[in-house]
Design a protein that fits this description.
35% helix, binds S-adenosylmethionine, 8 helices, five-stranded parallel sheet, 232 residues, alpha/beta, two-stranded antiparallel ribbon
């Protein structure tokens, strides 16, 4: 998979790109490339933002700057770009990133991520250049960089070769294998610690019973989660 990240802070991704699952993928041809859109601004003194029409606090990222950066990277009008690849603007109010969206994105060969800053994007960037608007949660970060990393991490760990044991990514919280429920609890040695025993069924060696206990735990966790959300 090849991911291009448009950001004003490409240095944020240096650490991320060196993490084991990402280096595993890079060794087999995957890439994360950063484009600092300040380097493509048609404006003087590296300007990328401007005051909002209508007034209000903060600065807004300019549509002509993103137009120029996307055009420089892909050599076509960015309006046409999204017909051929997912161009994802990160924004708190976008579609929530969940396991099914992660699966959907993991099937793409190439992705483009747009990281906002300040008050965010001029809406015309979203309307005319983006194919998707994605949020990592209903809270506001200072910029799209951490959101981009969360998305990349969740997507890339699903790709073959990322993890030491590929089965690790199959039966996980919210996956289809667990009917969209949270994962069941795990335990390891010691079998008892400070009087806290591991559930006996896990030591029984009875695979069918273990499987059924895990499914049940997973369903109970989903119910608790639903009750907590409903109680808010
Ligand atoms: C300070 S935020 C702008 C918030 C915007 N004024 C609002 O109220 O929705 C700056 C940038 O951070 C990114 N960002 C912040 N929170 C995010 C979230 N929860 N999910 C995805 N991106 C986020 C977006 O790219 C956004 O343009």
């Amino acid at each position: 998979m090849k991911i291009d990240i448009f950001t004003l802070f490409p240095e944020w991704f240096g650490w991320f790109s060196e993490q084991r699952h990402i280096t595993n993928l890079r060794a087999s041809g995957s890439r994360i490339d950063c484009v600092n859109f300040r380097e493509h601004t048609p404006l003087s003194a590296g300007q990328v933002d401007d005051m909002p029409f209508g007034g209000g606090a903060g600065m807004v990222l300019r549509v002509d700057v993103l137009d120029s950066a996307l055009r420089a990277r892909y050599g076509i009008d960015p309006v046409e770009l999204r017909a051929g690849r997912r161009v994802i603007a990160l924004a708190p109010g976008g579609r929530l990133l969940d396991d099914s969206l992660v699966d959907e994105l993991a099937r793409e060969e190439e992705l483009t991520l747009l990281c906002g800053r300040y008050e965010g994007f001029d809406e015309r960037i979203i309307e005319h250049f983006a194919s998707d608007v994605v949020s990592i949660g209903r809270y506001v970060l200072s910029g799209g960089e951490l959101a981009a990393m969360v998305l990349c991490d969740a997507v890339m760990r699903k790709l073959p070769g990322a993890l030491g044991d590929e089965r690790s990514a199959e039966e996980e919280s919210f996956s289809a294998a667990l009917e969209g429920n949270p994962e069941y609890p795990h335990y390891t040695r010691p079998a008892e610690y400070r009087g806290w025993p591991v559930p006996e069924v896990l030591l029984s060696g009875h695979h069918a019973k273990i499987e059924s206990w895990r499914r049940e735990q997973s369903r109970e966790r989903a119910e608790r989660l639903n009750q907590e959300s409903a109680g808010r």
